[in-house]
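Q&A log
Question type: sequence-to-structure
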Amino acid sequence: MGIFSILEERLSPGPGDDFWYEPINKFGNQDDVTASTALRSTPVWAAVNLISATIGSMPLILYRESPDGGKERARDLRLYDMLRWQPNPYQTAVELFEMGQGHLCLKGNAFFRLETNRVDELISITPLHPDRMKLKLLADGVVEYHYDRGIGQPRVFSSEEILHVKGLSSDGLIGYSPIAIGAGAVAMNFAAENYGSRFFANSATPSGILSHPGKLKPEARANVRKSWQAAHGSAKQHSVALLEEGLSWTALSVSPEEAQFLETRKYQAEEVARLFNVPPHLLMLLDRSTFSNVTEQNRSFATNCIRPWAIRWEQAIRKSILERFTEQGTFVEFLMDALLRPDTMARAQANQVMLQNGALTIDEWRQRENLNPIGERAGEVHWMPLNIAPVSVAETPPDDDDDDDGEGLRTLVNELRNHGFSVTEEMSIRTLRSLSSRRKIAEATRPLLQEASQRLLKREVKILQRMIKRQLRSDASTVEHRGTDGLINELDEFYHGDFVETIIASMLPVVRSYARQIYTQASLEVGFPPDFTPELEEFIREYVANISTYHAMTSRQQLQSIISGTNFVEVLNALELKLEEWLDKRANKIGVAQMTEGNGAFSKYAYVAAGVISLRWVTAGAASCPFCKKLDGRVVETQTNFVNADQTVEASEGEKTGKMRTKRNIGHPPLHGGCDCFISPGF
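Response status: OK
Response body:
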């Protein structure tokens, strides 16, 4: 029988049984060893406190994957500050993670309630005591969390409302309690402590024997003992003894078993260290410690004890929090550099090698040493070995008058024409390269925009469904005769409230990355060095705020037109169909629209920042529509629209006849839904 079979037999039934999963398990003859009593053992307290304090002291950082495969801190997300500083109103992040890790070390499980507001945003992460939590596995495989608040019926939470971090488990639902597993070792430690208390109380073992040649009456024996204690007991025990009337003194030595007591205590402390995978020297067992092996054991503590716990936390948070409340591409990591940090000299040598080989910038080096950046852009430059030249030099595009390889130019032109671009002789080599690069960036970003939109729509639809259910419960009239006023009012409050900020938070990371890439390519096209200034960031935020407001307005209008119906049953059916349509098609439409809209907006921003005075319309797409072809090659000043609002655009000659009236000013593509045209400098 394997270890897991034994533990399952002793600790819990199998998942197929009809039972409540409980986080605290006890077995064997150590039923009196619990999480609370175990903390009275100094080695257990030292180990649990050490692990918990270490996990609590490591900052948990929320990152976002960057397009180049790197990562950046997601400081713009509300969740960043929650995980880094204050997850709930009465606890700091250190206190929360320290408490949770304590529960894991003692009980094998840590539970937290995820509280949300009306727009399904996470506002608080609140700890729940494991002793009051029970898990119920339903027939469909869904897990319910029943929390006993001590005031009657337990509070039932769904799996979406709970963050559950678990230790080693054999059923995947509940982690084993380390204290239950090591109950024998903890009980032995208690036994050794109790023995030591009796032994050193000076009552369990006498220090010697006082003998008399004759037989003494009880009163005489009591008098002799009393007088001896008065003369030689306690502080006078080392004074000169005067023996009268044949008295003699025989000293007793400590037995070999008693002499091994301290070794026994030490061994039990080492057992506790093994139980929690903590190096002995961290529990003050220093008899075999040296400078070299202590350094290596510290690294072992970080990699073999702390890191597995940290990974459990990171993956549980990603599964229960990030996948629900943030966009794709976010993840969390504990900062473990301090635990693995070598001495000053070794650290300096490693950083120097990484700097010289382009792996670190000066500011990244200084950040590692808790120093401020040197400022400007000098600290952000990567350096190459040998000639110590900036890496950016290799990325600088050739001058416009470079003698480009003829075959390469033909390949570039053919590539653009195959994608429907209207390529003319007036276009410079830089423009051709820019069009090609921006097209590839746009195509790569489109699925990211669609994914972000789909996550947003899922959240929006979920909130709307809850809203409809509340209206169904709140109206006392029959379904057939219910009005829609309550639903309309709640809909207005929702779309005019915090939901716009929710849209911004969902779309901003993807749009920001897209904007920076397009801005860089457009800037290099006109020989202007790209610089991610605060003005650019402000423009990006304003852009995202505008498209977020437009999304909320469009959603409200579509639903408003449905709710205006008089038959409540028909309204509900129509709403259900509309929400299904959103989930099925709307994200793709948004992705395509924002791919073109963002390309035009951020290219135009770069051109204006570089001093370009005119813009050219460039048609693109496998089958450009006749209206876009009518605009092909049109040049306007940067402050002038290609088409004004309510202006009519006629189809190009040779195409099907027709006119199209625009509803808004067209300062850059798209002209219409599905348009994938570009702009370039007009000179």
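Response note: Residues 429-474 form the longest helix (46 residues).
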